[in-house]
Design a protein that fits this description.
- The chain is an alpha/beta fold and 305 residues long.
- α1 packs across α7 (204-215) and α4 (86-107) runs parallel beside α5 (138-153).
- The protein has one domain (3-302): Rossmann fold, CATH 3.40.50.720.
- The strands form four sheets. It has a seven-stranded parallel beta sheet, sandwiched between helices.
- α1 (13-25) links the parallel β1 (3-8) and β2.
- It contains ten helices and 13 strands.
- It starts with a strand and ends with a helix.
- The structure holds NADP nicotinamide-adenine-dinucleotide phosphate.
- The site of NADP nicotinamide-adenine-dinucleotide phosphate has 24 residues, from α1 and β5.
């Protein structure tokens, strides 16, 4: 009998890829929770469409499905939107996680929650799981709170801090910077990337593989999911452009903290992935091997794999 995996935020970038991989993996009965209507139902895949802020509905669904593990990706992940709509960000990022954490704790279900490299202030870089969050914007504050909720209430809980995630979406564009960038480059349009932001970008395939390994394994606690390449976002985009045969001229350097009206960003929020390398079988990639994986899997998706 297959184990039951519940994934929240299915309309989004990371969840879409995770669900696709879980179905390909074959070991899971997948319950995808989504705000958007998804037409497709197939074997071992069930899509349930509702607003996760409806706590009663979430409890009812949870108790019907009785998942073995939950991957909780749903969030308001737009930093500037969160800064300007703090009540919404609190309700969705913190409130929904609190409800879900309570349900998982009561049922003994494994909860894998998504946090972010943005919980750090970016003054040090190469942060480890032992470093304390110092949020510099409201989005990061909500994520730091969700880390505490999972840590303090779910014995079987895992917090994954994701670095900037690189990949191509299965459903809508969601929060994928690469999809938006490719669209622009194909039209010959320039794209702006902040040179002040240093990251360790994780590819979305590795992130999904890590979630599935964690969901089926014994690990609990905090884990950084990041690649082994520490790079600023401008140079990252130049290297991706070059690798794919686009001109570096299409990439323009900016400073995200010098743009008026934007929420502050951490400069160097690179994550140390040594613990992930130690506790997971899923290999952590470099920027370029991660990009190769993304392109390979996109081809497989297009061929119906
Ligand atoms: N992408 C990155 O680079 C990155 C980096 C670090 C951490 N993370 C974290 O990783 C997670 C996944 O990110 P992502 O890039 O996949 O974001 P995304 O593409 O924006 O997906 C998030 C999904 O959550 C859904 N959602 C929001 N509120 C909901 C609600 N009340 N009920 C049901 N669904 C709701 C959104 O639906 P709508 O689209 O309809 O609003 C969206 O489909 C997030 O927790 C994010 O904070 C992402």
């Amino acid at each position: 009998m297959k184990r039951k995996l519940m994934v929240t935020g299915y309309g989004g970038f990371v969840a879409g890829s995770t669900v696709w991989q879980a179905l390909r993996d074959g070991g899971w009965d997948v319950y995808a929770l989504s705000l958007i209507e998804v037409p497709e139902e197939r074997e071992h895949f069930h899509c349930l469409q509702f607003d996760l802020c409806d706590a009663g509905k979430m409890k009812e669904v949870f108790q019907q499905v009785k998942p073995d593990a939950v991957v909780h990706t749903a969030a308001l992940a737009d930093i500037d939107y969160c800064q300007n709509n703090q009540a919404d960000a609190e309700r969705i990022n913190v409130g929904v996680t609190r409800e879900l954490a309570g349900l998982c704790a009561d049922a003994g279900t494994k909860l894998i929650a998504c946090s972010t490299d943005s919980v750090f202030d970016g003054k040090k870089g190469m942060y480890t799981e032992e470093d304390e969050p110092v949020p510099v914007n409201f989005y990061a504050e909500t994520k730091a709170k969700t880390e505490e909720i999972v840590r303090d209430t779910v014995p079987n809980g895992v917090v994954t801090r994701l670095s900037l995630v690189m990949g191509l979406p299965v459903l809508g564009a969601g929060n994928s910077f690469l999809a938006k960038t490719f669209d622009a480059w194909k039209k010959g349009e320039q794209t702006k990337f902040p040179e002040n932001e240093v990251r360790t970008p994780a590819d979305v395939i590795t992130v999904g593989r890590a979630f599935l390994e964690i969901a089926g394994g014994d690990f609990t606690g905090m884990l950084h999911l990041a690649c082994s390449t520490r790079i600023n976002r401008y140079t990252m985009a130049c290297e991706i452009a070059e690798r794919l045969g686009y001109s570096r001229e299409l990439v323009v350097a900016t400073d995200s903290n010098a743009m008026p009206g934007r929420a502050p960003r951490p400069n160097d929020a690179s994550l140390d992935n040594a613990k992930a390398k130690r506790v997971l079988k899923t290999p952590m990639q470099t920027l370029m091997s991660g990009l190769d994986l993304v392109l390979e899997m996109k081809k497989a998706q297009e061929q119906g794999g």
